Amino acid sequence: MATLPGLPPFWNSLPVIALKLPRRTGFGRPLVRPFAAAAAGALLLTGLGFDQSATARARDNLAIATPFEVGDSPAGNYLAALIAGAERDTLAAATFFRETLRYDPRNPELIERAFVASLANGNMPDAFSLAERLLQRDPNNGLAHLALGIRAIKQHQYAGARNSLSKGGAGRQRDITATLLTAWSYAGGGDYKRAIAQVDKLKDEGFGTFRDFHAALIADLAGNVAEATKRFQAAYNGEKSTLRLVDAYARFEDRHGHRDEAIRAYEAFDQILPRHPIVTAALADLRAGKPLEPLIRSADQGAAEVLYGLGAVGGRQGDELAAIVYLRLSLYLSTKNGLATITLADIFERLKQYEQAIEVYDSVAEDSPLRVNADIQTALLLETLGKTEEAQKRLQDIVREKPKNEEALTALGNLQRSRKQFADAAATYTKALELSTKPEKSLWSLYYYRGIAYERQKAWPKAEADFKKALELFPDQPLVLNYLGYSWVDQGINLDEAFKMLRRAVELRPTDGYVVDSLGWAHYKLGQYDQAVKELERAIELKSSDPVINDHLGDAYWRVGRKLEAHFQWNHARDLKPEPEDLERILKKIDNGLPDDDKPAAAEAEPKKQTESKNGG
């Protein structure tokens, strides 16, 4: 899945903004907590290093939404709307609230809830109509004023936009939303001097890079090269690890005769986040002699950039509904912002609204560098929804059309591995490794995944070699330490080194039930049953629903004489749907217990290490 890593310190230090959503939205808890603002482009996406081509391709039109019906009962529809809102199902919430509103059209609370639901669902005509109705009953509703201000910007009615934004709190010096949107409204009207002066009202030192970034975009739009150069360089020198800023700066440098500097800026960012698709596509164009378009080409796009940045940060801070609203408004102003689209889809995905996430991913433009990422995410979500054939077909289509795409190959390998197609998975990972152009250290995960595929095929020498290679590339990687250490203990070999690995893995991931289970099982294999019980009980607290951990704890209980508890754990393991081969063993233990002559072979393998382990060595 596409992820959103921690933002650079600059963006996190920005003061709070004034926008607040209604107290009763019908979307679960009251959403009144403002979130910290950030520059448009504070988003850094990981795992998206795709080799792109400009060739558009035909894709299957996905129609996967679960159908639902509105009822005849206003009360029933209202309750359905509340439930849909609590689950962040924006489509159902908007539908049910609008249907309820038909029976009580003057109810201000219903109007407000229907307005927010329509806005979150991206139904802008309905949202704007409801905003107008809401302001007739609640003239101070800030979100309604913001929505109508955005509509005015889209319609190039800039004075009207400022009027709406001022009623939403533009007078407050630290309201970064209204300040910047007002600045872009002046830019839209051609008053660039006043637009930059408006941006410069952000006096707080924490706004320095942010202020210069938007001033640079406005000056660039105005054709004021000297001012844009000064502001871009100030912003870039203040923050070189934010994608949107780097992208805007490099594009500006290229268009003004400094192609080498543009390439240098992209390559420097590539050291931070290798092979981001936007960077990869830009570098390919630069090296082919193609000019880069400016990041912002209109006031609409500038305002959309403000809203996109706020939505990206809101999603990171847990304000999902507020983030969705900002991103919907951003995409209303600038429909082709691929990062905004990906960010919105990612929020729906984290909310487990997978069908909506797929719909949003599918709206990424065909010529966007992020198109392949959207297709991969769609395939993985189809798998989550149980549409296994569609998922595999989509990934195979990507691999067939882009056979050198490492991320598509990795995703396909992961899908094959999850389906226990281990031979196919190993072959797919091998292709990805052969084609990879990434820094070698970043390949640890491919060796790790392929090692798992080999191990599950019982090709242990190959698996062990891959695990060792993964640790060579990433020496303290806890997942690899855990898997290799566990495998060695399970085979009764390399026990001293295995224990060191497992203890280190637990240090690195002390709340990971699987990692703690591995250490507990290692103690069991060495006959250290009391210590095994201690670690396995902790593992159960962390991961109570795993059949293997329950099975392990049952074995440990039996060895320390707690046989009633052992039967309880085995019965629980049986009910948690273990693997067929594990189920057969568990059933035998439920019937017969563990024989005394069937103690782990490793218990007597290295008695010296048992003593050392008990002493913490």
In short:
Helix 25 (478-491) runs parallel beside helix 27 (513-525).
List keywords for this structure.
disordered N terminus, 32 helices, Serine Threonine Protein Phosphatase 5, Tetratricopeptide repeat, 66% helix, 617 residues, disordered C terminus, 3 domains, mainly alpha
Count of DSSP strands: 0
Q: What is the end-to-end distance? A: 39 Å
Low-confidence residue ranges: 1-63, 170-174, 602-617
Strand content: under 5%
Which CATH top level class of the largest domain fits? Mainly Alpha
Quote the average pLDDT.
82
Q: Give the full name of the CATH homologous superfamily of the largest domain.
A: Tetratricopeptide repeat domain
Give structural notes.
- The protein is mainly alpha-helical.
- Helix content is 66%, strand content 0%.
- The protein contains 32 helices and no strands.
- The longest helix is centred in the middle third of the chain and has 18 residues, at 299-316.
- The chain is globular, with a radius of gyration of 28 Å.
- Mean pLDDT is 82; it is low at 1-63, 170-174 and 602-617.
Write the layout of secondary structure elements.
Elements: H1 9-12, H2 74-86, H3 90-101, H4 108-121, H5 124-137, H6 142-154, H7 158-170, H8 176-188, H9 192-199, H10 208-222, H11 225-238, H12 243-255, H13 259-272, H14 277-287, H15 299-316, H16 320-333, H17 338-350, H18 354-361, H19 371-384, H20 388-401, H21 406-418, H22 422-435, H23 444-456, H24 460-473, H25 478-491, H26 495-508, H27 513-525, H28 529-542, H29 547-559, H30 563-575, H31 580-592, H32 607-614
